[in-house]
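Letters spell out the chain; backbone shape is given numerically. Take this protein:
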Amino acid sequence: MSEFQNPAIFRSVLDSLHTGVYLVDREGTIVFWNDGAERITGYLREDVVGRYCRDKILAHDGECEAGLCSALCPLARTAVDGKIREAAVEMRHRAGHRIPVWLRAVPIRDESGVIVGAAESFDERVFAREVVHCESERPVHTCLDEVTGLALEEHTHSCVKEHIAAFAKESIPFSVLCIEIDRLEQFRTTYGWEAVVSILRVVCQTLKDTLRTSDFLGHWNQRRFLAVLPWCSTSELSEAAEHLRKMVGYSGIRWWGDQLHVTLSMGGATVRQTDTAESLVQRAENALKESLQERGTCAVITLERKPKLVEV
């Protein structure tokens, strides 16, 4: 028998793939979890092998907002009907933040052609677009906040100024989102500063993973963050804000046996010909104030004549 007919070789190759791969049997029990799956999700083999997919370990969700670790799960459906399925979803990392991935589910059959389980492979989705890159997108370590890993306010302001200059010179459009975590002070009073630190890290990581690689996210002040989105129109900004809000809502931390979640309020604005960095961000902050006055947990996007409320 050729060494390439040895099942151990195929398992070793599958195990070492950079792509995440896991297998489940007909009952939905996870029987295999490779190195790529560990890398992408943060869950080790011993965390998941032997557990059921329906335990919602990853709790990956798609556009329908239905938990895919259920009867609607592509993997579960493929294990039943044998159809190959693909989907763009968001998985939950072990640390609590969301990871956008592209997954593919295929059936596993025995020698008689009977379905005995299913396999799912997944890779992180990367969003990229050719844009002007500001120096603030590559700050040195001393310019990063120790808790969130984001650029400090000074560098965020510089990034907005560079995009304003690019818009004036080359008409490269962009939008900004002013972001605030709802009732964070109340969260701190209830659970303490350590819980706030954990939730800040999860929220910021989720925001970074959800934004495109061409986008910028940094601190604006002690309570707020600012996202700069190149080539983003007002209508696209509304969609981006809603997607960010939804992904943060899916995220959370485990704290003394409880699953803790937070929500976001946001205000956005798209650059105009007469804008300075200050006037653009001021419109976004005014929209954020309107969001907070409404009830929070929503986004208000400033239009030319009147603000548009994006309902949750």
Notes: The longest helix spans residues 153-170. The chain has two domains: 3-124, 135-310. Confidence is low (pLDDT under 50) at residues 62-72, 128-132, 136-142.
